[in-house]
Each structure stands twice: as C-alpha cells, then as structure tokens.
C-alpha cells in the first residue's frame, strides 16, 4: 500500500514511562541501558531503515513529550507504561485519543493494557490474569499471511516472560492475529487490532521490564510490522470525524424521474 | 436462554433527560404528554407484560435517578438524551459504565449517540450527519431472524423522522442488525450491537423529540426485543472483570507425565 | 429469548458416523457402549429435560437418517464424524446446508471440522494441527457471561484428550467463546460461532472417540448450552433467503414532498 | 506494505463471461466495445501503471483461461459473471478456490455474487433484491481512510445502475467498507471484505452489463484500490493451510523447570 517511501518516511514516536529505569536501576541497566523506549526505538529503526524517522518521548518531559508539534507530526505512536499510568496527564491523553481518531496509528505494548489511552479507546476494564514467574511464552499466528505476522516463526518462542492470561477484558478485536500460551496452561489474545475513527490500534502483549523481551528479534519484527501496518493513509488529512449538519439531499428530482416509467410505487414486483 | 420468567421479571430502567418536555413544552405535550421516557416505558411494559418491571429515571432527580440502589437492581437500562449530555454527572456516568461492564444491558436511543455513557463505552467521536426535515425513514433488517428484528416488517417504515447519515463514527459493531435509508439518499447503520465486558449494548437510532416515533408499533417492538436481548445472564454475578494476580499454574506434573512416552520435545512430527 | 417451553420442546437430532463403534469395537464399547451419538444425546436430554426432544441419526441409515421428514422437524442438528466424511452423500449435505441457511441450528463437534457440511458452510480448508497423546486440555472462556459458557469453570479441565492446535483454517468467527491449551504449548480456538443465512453454527472441539470426553460434565454442559443458543427463532418460517425480483420502490412521491420545503437539492448545508 | 514495486509488478487477471457481449451485442458494443473485461482491465492498468501486469481471461477459453500456469502466476483475480454461472466448470472453480486459500486475492464484481466461486467461499445463498430501472446509486464510505475507499467522494454518485437491495445473504463481512442507497429507498452492503485462508476477498456491487458503470472514474478507482488491497503478502509461499500431524510439543522440561520455584501447582494466588 506504499505508505512510506524514501522520500516521505513515516514519523514514529516511541513513548515510554522511563520510571522503572530509575526505580529498578540496577536490573534495568543490564537489560535496557538507555531505557526500554530506546531499545524499542532502535529495533524499529534498524528493521525499517529509511522508511521511518524514529524518536522517543517520556513521561518526565513537558507534556510527556507529546506536544502539539510532536503529535501533529507523528504517524505512529507506540506506548509502554506500567507503574505510572496515573501520572499521565488527562489533557495529554485526550490529545492522543483525538489524534488516533484523526488517523494516527497506535501500538500498545504489554502493561500498557492498563494505560489511560488504551482504556479510553477500548471502553472496557482491560484487566487480565498475570504471574511473574520467568515463564516461556509461545506466540501463535492465527491469521496466516497477516502483515503483522510477516517473517516470524509459528510459534514465536520467548524464554523469560511474565504470564498474561484470559480473561482479557477487551472488546472483540477487529482482527485477532496472535494467541499466546504459557507453561501453566494459560492462554492470551496477545496480538489484537482495532480501528478507532480513522486510526488503527495494535495491542501486542509480549514485553516486560523484567526480561530482555524487546531485544528478541521476533518481537522486534512484530513491532516493526505493526508500525507499518498502523501507518496512516498516504492521503490522510488528520481531521477527526465530525458532525455534518443539514446537508442537502443527494437524490434529485431528475434521479427520481429517471426510474423506468413502468414502475410505480405500490406496484408489487414478482418473486 | 430463559432470561426472565413470571417468577423473576427483568428490571428495566428507562432514563430520559426530561428537558425538551419543558423547553418545547407545547410541542412535546402533544407528542409525549408524560414525557418521552414515559412513552418508551409504556411501550416496553405493554409488549413484555409480566416479563418486566419498568420504571423511569430522569436527569433532574438526585444522581439523575441512578442511585446505587436503582442501578444494582437494574437488568437493562435505556438511555435517551439530547440537549443535556453535558449535565450528566461524570460520577454517575462512571457508575453506569461499571455496571454495564459487570453485566447490565444498555439500550442507547437516537441522539444518545452523543451521550457521555455511549462515547465512553465506544471510544470514538460517535459523530454523524443529520438533517431535520420531516423525512421518511426505512429501516432494513440485514441479519435475518435476529431476535432484535423479530416481528417487524422488512423494511420498517417511519413517516416523520430526523435524518441520520453516515459517516457514523463508531467502532465496527459486533453485529449490524439494521441499516436505514432516507429520501435524500442517506444511509445509516441504525441498529448495532456490541459487547462491553459482560454487558450487552444495543444502539437504535429512530426516535426524535420532534416526532411521535416512540409511539410507532414497530419501533416499540424493536425496543422491547432489544431489552430482552440485552438482559443479563440468569446467573449473572454482576462482578466486573478484574485482575487475577499470581494464580497457580493449572498444568501439573501429572499432566506432563501423561503425554505419550514416545513423543519427546524436539522430535519432529511428519506432515 | 424463550426459544422453547414445555409446550413446544426443541427438536434435536444428534448425528453420528457410528463407524468407530465397529472398527474399534472393543475400545469404544468401554467408552461409549451405545455409540458416541447415544452418549451425546443422553447428555443433552438429561441437562435440558422437557425443553427438548432428542433423537439420533447415523451414517448407515437411509439418507443417513436425515430424511426430509427428519430435517424439516429438526430445530438443532449436532454432527460428529471422523473416518467417514467421504461417505456422506453430497445430496444429503446439500439438504442439511439448505436447512441451516433456512434457520436450523448446527453444532459441529471435534473431528467434524473436516465434515463436508462444515467445510461447505465455512469455505476454508478447516485444517489444523493434531497430536494423539493423551493430553490435558484446558478450555478457557474468553467471552464472559456468554450463554454457551454458562455454568462451566474457567478453565474447563479435561484429562485425556487429543491435541488440536493452530493454525485452524476457519473464517474469523463471529464470536470466539473458548480458547484451549495443551501441555505441548499448543493453542486452539475451541469454541466458535458463526451465522450462515438464518442459521446459527457452533463449533466445539473437545471430544474424541479415543477418550471419554462426552461423559465429562462440563463438556455436556457446553453442548447443552450450545443447543439452546443455536435454536431457531420461535417464529422461524424456515424459508431460505431468496432472490426478490423487481420489487416496487418503497419511497413514494408523498415521501419526497414531505421534506421541508426550504431544503433544495444542491443547497449546501453548513458544517 | 510494499506489495508491489517497479521490479515486481502485481499480476492481475480479469475474468469475464464474455456472453452478454454476444447476446446483447448491439447494446454492449456501444458500452463495452472490447467487452466488459477489457474495460475493467484498462481501468486497472491505467490507474496502477507499472505496479501491475494485467491480462484477461474468458469463459470460452480452454479451462476458461484459468490454466495452472495462469493461476499460479496470478496475484489478484477479478471475477464478473451473470448469465453463465452454470457453465463454469466445477474443476476450475475448485482450482480458483484453492488458489484463494493459498493467498491469491479475489475481487467479486456485481452479479458475480451468484458465481460458483463466491458462493463456495461464502457458504451462503448470496441472494438479494434487484430492480432494473436505470436508478441512481449512492455509494457511502463507512470505514474512513480505508485503502479501498482512497480517493473517492462521500458518496460516490452513479447515474444509471441496477438496484441491489438487502437482504444480501452473506456471512458478516470482516470489514464493511461501503453501503449503497437507491431512489426506491433500498440499501445494500456494496463493499465488503473477507479473509478466506491466506487470501483476501473483496465484493463490490456497482457494475452491470446494461450501464457504463465500469467507465465511471470512481468505480475504476475503487477497483484499483481493491486490487492493491487484495494483493498477496510479498513473501507469500502460496501453500494452502494444511494438516500438521503429530508435531512434537514445543514446551520442554527446561521450560517447566524455569518457572519460579516458589510457585507450585495448586497453590492459590491472591486476588
């Protein structure tokens, strides 16, 4: 669909809380030296090359790094949060929500299932089961040849992951792309897409601050695929859907006159 | 599904703004002498008899009539609003939203597409086209034998209606039951269902304070069908989906031991 | 939805191949002395009591037991087949397919994913992964409070089952009710619903001739729930959707005249 | 998604019955001098340029022009038929069906709703209402910014069309892109997509041998968009989904051992 070319790269903003990086500094420094958001951004950049311009934004920045200028020039936003959902300013959430409805793509990662932005787009609790037990996760593709699943094995195998299990209280996805399993027997709808307004939303669960999941090549592949999948239409105008008041009728007197003269209202057709 | 019986009628609460009844008193007195909510409630009661207990609630009441006691004993809530969406208290909206996720059914009627409760459940703008021109609306069933469409003609014909047209900015319905047309050529997805958590939501567009639509027998029939369709499960516990932390694994050592001894991990099966 | 009452019980026909009962007579005699179809029928009858009349039909009977008389008086048909899919007469398949489109409900069980009737309703290969290794299956509910999941634990636990795994090549279900897991890490969309014409189709995977799964109380519960869920509308006419040729227009000259005189086609409304 | 580039154009085969061109020769010669299929092919070629190689195939050719060589080198097939559905050889239909499940895209146009290939992919009657009365059709986009709707007005206006109306007996589309209206008040789900196996199917109703619809620039635009939307994944292997027998388990003893030692099966977690 030619969403981006060398001449018009897709602008990607990778948002991260950047809190665990300080609260669990030692552990995180080993896994994610520049922060999880930096690792995610590098993955996207290295896989997509000059199809994208990637930048990061974090909670601690003014407006959490999501100023009008940044949002208005972002084609796809990725969101990772965990311990700081409450600290995200409601006004910024509202801006991001509006920008999604206007056409910006959104990737929601792991514990961001509980982010304000995801819950406001979904309308459900987004709750789930979880267990922190260094589990193995298998990610199975249930929609073959879906662009988000391009280039990854069936299943993807991730050694070292937090278990997420059903019931995952989300609206029925428009598309279910992945289902994951864990050694305890839990299952989880780990790759789901929805449309909201003109924007495309992709939730992808693998990824936890306690494990090196965002270095995993298949996870990086899925995120890169997801970014391209969620990219706005090349001709996107970024106008949110809005009320249209009192438009004139589109059918005209000439339209009605053209109907074959033999057919009069009330005259029953034959079955 | 036995949602209600003579012994356990379904409790239905019909919520109305009751503002036009005062602002356009003369016009409304002719159409809806006791208020639109009363007409809607009567329609439900007369069609469903002792399968239901019906009461009304209005904006001007304490907590808009939606106290904990009322909500906790409501199986299905219907909502009509238009000029007073802003006046609905956010705390009440949150209670209603939570109760839907816990299993209460919700019917959203006509201009309530812009109600706070509908927009928070949907996550979209819910905007549309409209024209106030005493139009004729035809309501076509696109899901044959759906319980909501039981007992109404194909199409339902409503003389005297406000035009609602696409684009209707909603998430893709779980089920599209009706599509409407108007003389100007406009179309509208006029009967849509979604699940949110354990609750069922039905949006039905025909109905405007300026026309006697809620007296129309087919419109009353659809609303009654919708109420029964949206009723909670007979065994509903009305607990919202919630986080489950650190559950024990469900697979046991015995489970793994039972797998046929000849099959070892790594041994490739034949295609 | 009051689909059946003491006065009008739902007619259920349980179809079985009845081949393994002879080919694996010794093993089957222990598990299913009267045949798998008899066990399934007994489960339905004992859970639903006088809401249903249950009968069985088998491959070896004239027209496989699915004469016009039987089909025309069947509200819900259940189908289990495995080694004899090829032996089902195409003319009978066509009759069953037409009856589903006309409103008869259909439950498709386990290896019947490869039945002619299921493949013709789905349009896909319906292929999957499988392993016969006396596995443990966990069946998780992903649509809370869905009538098909009524009264069963989360998850259902079945000790002794054949593994079915993704990719399950089916159209995206209208509703995904259950996802199963197995000790090898495999997952499977084990409870799926679709509408085809006026009929409702429910595929449920647990159940294999090699294991006593159809005696499992939770499996019996799901099958009984599925039968009631799939029951035709009380007012079903059992006419298949058909072409309507040359109907008269529904909009009349009076409709067009009623549109507010101030609004002329071509006159642009304001946004 | 970069489905095609100058180096690897998408191969498109435009299939037409080529019967009306002879049966209604005079009328068709005015509208479609080289046949409808030629007009459709020219539209695709002129809008997509070197992104595509376009060829045609017709009923009268050996294997209806759909030899193994042609099908194996076709990325997207378009299908228009009307009076000759019965004449299409079942063996060819089966090959086309298999190729769709393997990843070939398929556009189904107008009266091809009754083609063998569409009915076998859908599993429903695909029946509808129709009236041949030189009507005006308005095609409304209900999924904003969908690639298939790129570059066309809201609504598309077609003067001179056959009316198609609901009930259109199809499975619920994966995506509903367009809804059409006609002066008689009829509505129709005129742009629908489904996935079948690895293939993408797009049904688009405007277009009739009696009207110059396939010369309409917006109709040509939608068809071109649909072709690009339906294109197979760049890495498509064109292997149909198939059974996988007795794969080894993917979870290993090491996986189970890694689970945190404090967590034993049966030990209940806290909520």
Automatic annotation (TrEMBL), chains A, B, C, D:
Cited SUPFAM superfamilies: Class I glutamine amidotransferase-like
Domain ThuA-like: 12-230
Record Pfam families: ThuA (PF06283)
Gene3D superfamilies: 3.40.50.880
Superkingdom field: Bacteria
Protein name per its UniProtKB record: Trehalose utilization protein
